[in-house]
Amino acid sequence: MAEEYLIAVDIGTSGIRAQAMDAETGNPISTTVTLRHPIPGANVVDHLHFAVNVGRDAAHALLLEAVNKVISNLGVDLDKVIRFAVCGNPIQLSLFQNIEIRDLAFWGTNAIKRLDITPPKRNSAIVKAPDVDLEINPNADVYIPPAIKHEIGADALAMLVKSEVLEKEGVYLVSDFGTNAEIALVIDGEIFTASAAAGPAMEGQMLECGMLASPGAISDVTSIKKGEWTNHVLNNELKVDECDTINVDDGSVLKPRDNNTKARGVTGTGVIAANSLGIEESIISMPKINTTNNRINLQDGVYLTEEDMTTIGKAVGAFRAAHITLCVEAEVDLEDIDAVYMAGASGFYVDPLKSLTVGQIPACSFDIYQLGNTSLLMAIDIVKNPDVLQELQDIADGMRSNHIMLATSEIFEKIYGLELAMCEQNMPFWKYEEWLEEYGYGTIPEKEEDPEIHKLFETDIPDLGINGLSIIENIGTRIKSKIEGCTNCQTCVKTCPEQALTLDDGVATIRSDYCNGIACQKCQLACPEKVFNLEDMFYIEGESPDKLND
Fold first, then answer.
1. What fold characterizes domain 155-200+310-372+388-455?
2. Which fold has domain 478-548?
3. Per-domain residue ranges for the chain?
4. Which residues touch 522 (CB under 8 Å, ≥6 apart)?
5. pLDDT tens column, 9-37
6. DSSP E strand boundaries for 50-155
7. Do domains 155-200+310-372+388-455 and 478-548 have the same CATH topology?
8. Cα 359 from Cα 550, distance rounded (Å)
């Protein structure tokens, strides 16, 4: 057994991943992942809302409670951890450090000045474990990599470094396929960055039968012939099993599976696959679904609705609009891109050919690399070799001049408006292209039919360690509140899409990790008495963070 240990952690918008290593050899021992984030919400905006309104201390307490639970599950002696490294976007790392967060929530110098906010530098930092409430050896050093700008953090640095595009000549597009969708266009070493904030649908959230990648998730579908699709489902070891072949029109089983893997929902990669096949087979004309019940019927009663198509269309559209915006700003065409790099778990497991079809990566992509979880891999590099931290700071310092804030970009606004017209109003793609050319933003190139695909590893985390993978399903806490005027009708409970809410004699209890936060509010909107207020449940003025726990 090792005498000393290293721990690397990736804090993503949808969950936490951690790996323990032998400090002497650097060999991985064990890996633990969560299926959700402990703070209410399915995106970074919700997490910010919680931190600003409930309090930064409360958000930090929830996050660190979860991180400590994850690392305690790694099966190593935490008193013998000598180094700890973390990676993630600026919001997650700010919550981890418990530093000023309001500058990320409010945009514009006037707002920052009016609120008397002093934005932190968010440079690389080395602190001791007690400084961030980590329950490990108090003398352990904690390594925190730098952010680049308001929207772009250490996870974006990670995908650039791990893709090795910074040392190459040519034009390269690197995208992290998560909810925050960090994107970089690299031209002969010069870096243009943006964050598309594609949203939780990319990872299977905010969909009627959606779920994060976990056992029982449909991760892909393949077509036998028009309308007859084979479902591919993650088993209990997170490996993909080929399962039922389904008639998409009515959900009937045409060929049963020869295993016991049952589908519980569909994850982001599965939605991309269904969207792609549906478009190719003229079953989907965004956002309309041309089946008997206007649904894409999958295995074990799992389905996709027209509302889901709109949601995923908005997410995919954010990628395409961001890609075009970066190219316009950098004065290159999509056809000039030499290779495309797909980072993150969703980018690793999605079928790149289907991403081409729906526009998640440029249609002309002919050299495609699937990198895996670069954020965790970067944290592993840092904890093994702390000198990497300064190297990342040097790269970040050189990147800050070419960041495109999409929220204020007129180019992005025009292009994303076209994306919304397609996925909400059924505008035909030829009209999209016509308007794109009218704006002077070029044209969408022809789809590459036979691209070179390079999958660097078998799984998004290449080596799980000698003790393998453990999964924590319940990572949040329970927030309770008495609802004055509640009749206990249970309407709010029945409406909750994530089954995050229970109601007992007028006392509402919310599972923080299941709740979709302020962006959802279906519980509040459904209340017939109009007495349920979700924000009031989260806002506990004057209370200490531990009051959030049972």
1. Nucleotidyltransferase; domain 5 (3.30.420)
2. Alpha-Beta Plaits (3.30.70)
3. 5-152+378-383+463-472, 155-200+310-372+388-455, 209-304, 478-548
4. 495, 496, 497
5. 999 988 999 999 999 999 999 999 998 89
6. 81-88, 125-128, 141-144
7. no
8. 45
Amino acid making up residue 329: E
Distance, CA of 176 to CA of 186 (rounded, Å):
14
Could you tell me the pLDDT band of residue 2, with boundaries at 50, 70 and 90?
A: low
Relative to beta strand 303-304, strand 478-482 is unpaired
Q: Specify the CATH number of the domain 5-152+378-383+463-472.
A: 3.30.420.480
Tokens of 470: 């453990």
* Residue 401, pLDDT above cutoff 70: no
Across residues 432-461, what is the average pLDDT?
A: 91
Which residues, at least 6 apart from 310, have a Cβ–Cβ distance to it below 8 Å?
Answer: 286, 287, 423, 424
Task: Please state the rounded mean pLDDT for residues 328-336.
Answer: 95
Share of the chain above pLDDT 90, in %: 67
Contact 300, 255 (CB under 8 A): no
Strand partners, 367: 452
Whether the model clears a pTM of 0.70, i.e. scores above it, the answer is: yes
Q: Is residue 266 within 8 Å of residue 350, measured between CB atoms? A: no
Structural tokens at position 407: 């929220």
Task: Write down the mean pLDDT value for the chain.
Answer: 90
